[in-house]
UniProtKB/TrEMBL annotation:
Keywords: ATP-binding, Nucleotide-binding
Presence of the UniProt keyword Nucleotide-binding in the record: yes
PANTHER family, alphabetized: 26S PROTEASOME REGULATORY SUBUNIT (PTHR23073)
Record-given protein name: AAA+ ATPase domain-containing protein
Similarity section: Belongs to the AAA ATPase family.
Length: 334
């Protein structure tokens, strides 16, 4: 089941209850979800991995090139038998790299959802132990757990455990961790998909990236992706014009930054009893006084919200003649 029934009043509570039910179920021949099966640190106090039995990545928005590769990874496993007959293996290991907040983690969730597999995520804080030699054993135990049944294993912030081995400050622990990873990447089975994600590919050991079957670069969202991202938020009281202006002005920013801005506007709209459109436009005026698209924002604030040139100027921290000139230029450009 991929969608919460419409008759359920609290979707989040339903998901939690369903997840708990799966966790309490009797272990099967596949990957086990009960807490006793998930590897823990030497003291047994912290789990080394998180298991999401019903991952969801419906919110994923990426460019066409990345989307095509993600769909291809899914299709490979759906048509594994055909590939096997031709002597071709499916992709076993994938490396995602790109700036923070561009959808790398969500893409792993999307793949797991489409393949109807659980998502196992390495808990980096718990794995990298202060005890000498423990980190390598911790990572190996998580990898062995992920091999116990079909799943998608996500190694987020991969550069933290697969850094270059030429670090003079390392006392040997880093080299042991990288050696463990190299061996596991070579031996990784087709039954599970290993996905590693990093914001800093230049920090990876040179021998590591050569082990991946695929390397996919995630870029900052373009204009089309930003519009899709904002349109998916389905704010009924925000016009298409304001969404378009917001998408334009957020050029060069990540998905996460845009969504954080939108969530901030939602909270302020509720707390101050204002419309979402009013808050979005006001925040755009305030936060982007020097943007290339500022004239469009000023025009929207003036025409749709009825804001005076002086009030816009106060928010933007510029003179009101500057605002008047900007609005005039935006109008002439239409």
């Amino acid at each position: 089941m991929r969608a919460v029934p419409s008759s359920v009043p609290d979707a989040d509570a339903f998901r939690v209850a369903l997840h708990d039910a799966l966790s309490a179920a009797a272990p099967t021949a596949g990957l086990r979800f009960d807490s006793g099966a998930i590897p823990a640190d030497a003291e047994g106090t912290h789990s080394l991995a998180h298991v999401d039995a019903i991952p969801s990545g419906d919110e994923l928005v990426v460019d066409d090139a990345v989307a095509a590769q993600l769909h291809e990874i899914v299709t490979e496993r759906e048509r594994r038998a055909e590939l096997a007959r031709a002597g071709v293996a499916v992709s076993r290991t994938v490396l995602f790299w790109g700036p923070p907040g561009v959808g790398k983690t969500l893409a792993a969730r999307w793949i797991a959802q489409r393949l109807e597999l659980p998502l196992v995520t390495l808990d980096l804080a718990a794995v990298v132990s202060s005890y000498l030699g423990s980190s390598g054993r911790n990572i190996r135990s998580v990898l062995q757990f992920a091999k116990s049944g079909p799943c998608v294993l996500l190694l987020d912030e991969f550069d933290a455990v697969a850094k270059r081995r030429d670090d003079d400050t390392d006392i040997g622990e880093l080299k042991r961790i990288v050696n463990v990873i190299l061996v596991e990447l070579d031996r990784w089975p087709e039954t599970s998909l290993l996905v590693a994600a990093t914001n800093h590919p230049q920090l990876l050991d040179e021998a590591v990236d050569r082990r991946f079957d695929r390397i996919i670069e995630f870029a900052l969202p373009g204009g089309a992706e930003r519009r899709t991202l904002l349109a998916n938020l389905k704010c009924r009281d925000v016009s298409a014009e304001v969404v378009d202006v917001a998408a334009t002005i957020w050029e060069g920013h990540s998905h996460a930054v845009i969504l954080r801005f939108w969530d901030l506007c939602r909270r302020r709209a509720i707390l101050n009893n204002r419309t979402m459109e009013d808050v979005v436009v006001t925040e755009l005026v305030t936060q982007f006084p020097t943007s290339d698209a500022r004239n469009q924002v000023w025009q929207v604030a003036h025409d749709r919200l009825g804001m005076s040139n002086r009030s816009i100027a106060t928010l933007a921290g510029v003179s009101h003649p500057t605002v008047a000139s900007g609005i005039r230029q935006a109008t002439e450009a239409l």
